[in-house]
Hints:
The protein is mostly helical.
Amino acid sequence: xxxxxxxxxxxxxxxxxxxxxxxxxxxxxxxxxxxxxxxxxxxxxxxxxxxxxxxxxxxxxxxxxxxxxxxxxxxxxxxxxxxxxxxxxxxxxxxxxxxxxxxxxxxxxxxxxxxxxxxxxxxx
Length: 124
């Protein structure tokens, strides 16, 4: 109900849905309810995309997912979660552009969405 109210207020102020971003506030996977919360964030993105027409944008801070994890698994976890959320309709993400695995994932997501032309040499 809160998000619906905020969307209504934004629209009343002539701010179209295409300019709105919602963040389901992802948390780290390693402790507590983190894993369940990450699933809930995935479902929230799906709902936000279905709730209004045209849909609002969604975004996350990807590094939040890997807080507290060993350095050797952070890239794999982050890249996998980014793919998972992209499949739910994630619009944008704050990412580490210096991480080759994450950037490879971004490239592939864009290819799968037909936003760029795939070239195998770009992911090697």
